[in-house]
Amino acid sequence: MHRIAIIPGDGTGPEVIAEGLKVLDAAARKFGFKYETTTFDFGGERYLRTGETLPDKAIEGLRNFKAIYLGAIGHPKVKPGVLEQGILLKLRFALDQYINLRPVKLLPGVETPLKGKGPDDIDFVVVRENTEGLYAGAGGALRRGTADEVAVQESINTRRGVERCIRYAFEYCRARGKKRKLTLCGKTNVLTFAFDLWERAFNEVAREYADIETDYAHVDAICMWMIKNPEWFDVIVTDNMFGDIITDLGAMIQGGMGIAAGANINPEGVSMFEPIGGSAPKYTGKGVINPLAAIYACRMMLDFLGESEAAAKVELSITETIGNLKSMNAGQMGYSTSEVGDMVAELVAE
Ligand code: IPM
Ligand code: MN
After folding, report:
1. Does the reported pTM lie above 0.90?
2. Of 40, 165, 238, 331, which one has the fewest beta carbons inside 10 Å?
3. Is residue 310 helix, strand or coil?
4. Can you tell me which atom of ligand 1 is nearest the CA of 276?
5. Interatomic CA distance for residues 227 and 126, integer angstroms
């Protein structure tokens, strides 16, 4: 029995999660596994009503689940940062989800803005460190609001934190069994403390993985190569901030926010699966948002839960559904959000 916590969240989050749950249900029937869901109302509305983001006791409760399926966090009436830090980042940190796994995969039939590139060229995975770096919240301000103001925001890189992320990336690359190439994305020419640690840890761990080719690229160069030669990449490992930035670029080359999904993984604990796109207030409640990213997140969750056959079938069904859509963009799919969800669910059930 898989115990799954559902946090639909804000904006279009509930709409896309509803479609993901249709697909999960179809997959469970078809492949004969059992699951149980509990829904939590954390998000902007609850915050506006109660002033509460994510109480500590809620975190304790969430530890009883194997996975969390999250829609979106972010509300136009709440100051930016409050919900992101108070809910999304708090979950990642408190549950020690130290890996943010983001596949950049162009599925057949999806349009990419990269001229002359197809599904064979765009198929790599970014392993983003998810608990340290600039996201650790280390820093402070002095003389705020005066002409002499000082703001410091430090990047925290621990040997333990960096090494466990790098080790995960090597293991993942090996298990993926594709090009068997792991690229470290950093900035060793400027961030000479942080990426010195990263580079040494990378090279030391690499000695245990003779079957994996290793490579290094500065983050600015990676942005260039992701556009020009995405086929060079297999798995990329990087810190929290760089991982955040390059995966938005990755989402665009794989066809946009309508399809990009990610997994916040604690291999020994509770992991969380989410579409990468935000709460999309302007599309909320209209039934026009593309649910495929959330459904792809569900596919990643199935994999994590050990339901690999179901996961493969969901991916196949997503691909088949894409063939019917006019576009991956919200409002231009040629179908409503729930019609797209139905299509995938029906294909899974077949
Ligand atoms: C992401 C998002 C978050 C991040 C924000 C909403 C805090 O951009 O998941 O990539 O920066 O990690
Ligand atoms: Mn981001």
Report:
1. yes
2. 331
3. helix
4. 9
5. 15
